[in-house]
Write a structure and sequence with these properties.
single chain; about 350 residues; 5-stranded mixed beta sheet; 11 helices; about 45% helix; binds 5'-O-[(R)-(carboxyoxy)(hydroxy)phosphoryl]adenosine; binds zinc ion
């Protein structure tokens, strides 16, 4: 079974081939055309520019994915496409392309939730994980914890009440005029700074989530307080020094202490959820799982706590279509085929 995955939910046009060998997934190709250079100038993703660029890139990206995987159109047994969540104009490009391709090939199409894609990137990379597993999905749009008792079934344990962790990285970088996307830039700068230089206020979520009172909120996240604390600190230092741009050393210290706080929060909550639910493994996926400190500390804590941690390689952590093809395998196994009227969905609960 050879599945062509297509992903266009944000600012990456991606296509990939994943093969199923009796339940084991093999990555045949993984092509990503990033639009970061286009959006950098604006300090963030401009939805209209993103959709237009997806239209330009989609055919070439799919052809490259087929060629790299040594396959032609007739070899494709099924297609999987990201239905949402994401930018609706961007999603529509992938959904329309996938529907047209599936219809003309006479092959089944399955719709994939982008977050399920991030979760399945862990299984694509590492094969079978001991269940139950707790998975942290941490990206530019989401910061959520899931419990997985059965492969392909995801139970939400907690999520951010406000900003996603990647969003906090991007906003802090913007505030410091460091560029876009902020995550990798702050990650690099943090290596030069003193992580103990600034003490940020802690975040404690004891109140229930008003939007989901039925859910125990103890594994939720919140990053907007930290973001505001960084904003206040920067404004104060700018006025004390009478400068727009803070000295490099000070920015590096800020990056290091901000990163320390974000990473500590993510790891503490993931391990707390794992212990609470008796998880036998922890997975971490999504763009922020590319973070050097998060990877190193999660793996170090795994050794100390004897709960193994699984993180995909960098090219499977940030947005890609291989993870969409992998999540598509789960839908195909259930014969959960998309109908011809499949539409993109800006918000799509998992
Ligand atoms: O999963 P992803 O590629 O797209 C979404 O689904 O959102 O994640 C993108 C996010 C951005 O916020 C970016 O700043 C962040 O992942 N990111 C990082 C790193 N690399 C990417 N954040 C922290 N450290 C990194 N090394
Ligand atoms: Zn993503």
């Amino acid at each position: 079974m050879l599945v062509l995955g297509i992903e266009t939910s944000c600012d990456e046009t991606a296509a990939a081939l994943v093969e199923d060998h009796g339940g084991r997934w093999r990555l045949r190709s993984n092509i990503v055309a990033s639009q970061a250079d286009i959006h950098r100038e604006w300090g963030g993703v401009v939805p209209e520019l993103a959709s237009r660029q997806h239209v330009r890139d989609i055919c070439g990206v799919v052809e490259r994915a087929l060629a790299d995987g040594g396959a032609g159109w007739p070899d494709v047994d099924a297609l999987a496409v990201t239905q949402g969540p994401g930018l609706v104009g961007s999603l529509l490009v992938g959904v329309s392309f996938a529907k047209a391709a599936a219809w003309s090939l006479g092959k089944p199409l399955v719709a994939v939730n982008h977050l399920a894609g991030h979760i399945e990137s862990i299984w694509l990379e590492h094969g079978l994980l001991a269940l139950p597993a707790v998975v942290l999905v941490v990206s530019g749009g989401h910061t959520s914890l899931y419990l997985i008792k059965t492969e392909g079934e995801y139970q939400l344990l907690g999520r951010t009440r406000d900003d996603a962790a990647g969003e906090a990285y991007d906003k802090v970088a913007k505030l410091l005029s460091l560029g876009y996307p902020g995550g990798p830039i702050i990650d690099r700068l943090a290596a030069e700074g003193d992580e103990t230089a600034i003490r940020w206020p802690g975040t404690r979520l004891t109140n229930p989530d008003r939007n989901a009172p039925e859910r125990d909120g103890r594994f939720d996240f919140s990053f907007s307080g930290l973001k505001t604390a960084v904003l206040r600190h920067v404004r104060q230092r700018q006025s004390e020094l009478g400068v727009e741009q803070l000295p490099h050393g000070e920015i590096a210290d800020l990056a290091a202490s901000f990163q320390r706080r974000v990473v500590e929060t993510l790891i503490d909550r993931a391990f707390a959820a794992a212990r609470w639910h008796g998880a036998k493994s922890i997975g971490i996926a999504g763009g922020v799982s590319a973070n050097s400190r998060l990877r190193a500390e999660a793996l170090a804590k795994a050794e100390r706590s004897e709960i193994p941690v699984y993180i995909p390689r960098l090219s499977l952590s940030t947005d890609n279509a291989a993870m969409i093809a992998a999540a598509g395998m789960r839908q195909l196994a259930k014969k959960n085929y998309a109908l011809p009227d499949l539409n993109a969905a800006a918000s799509l609960p998992l």
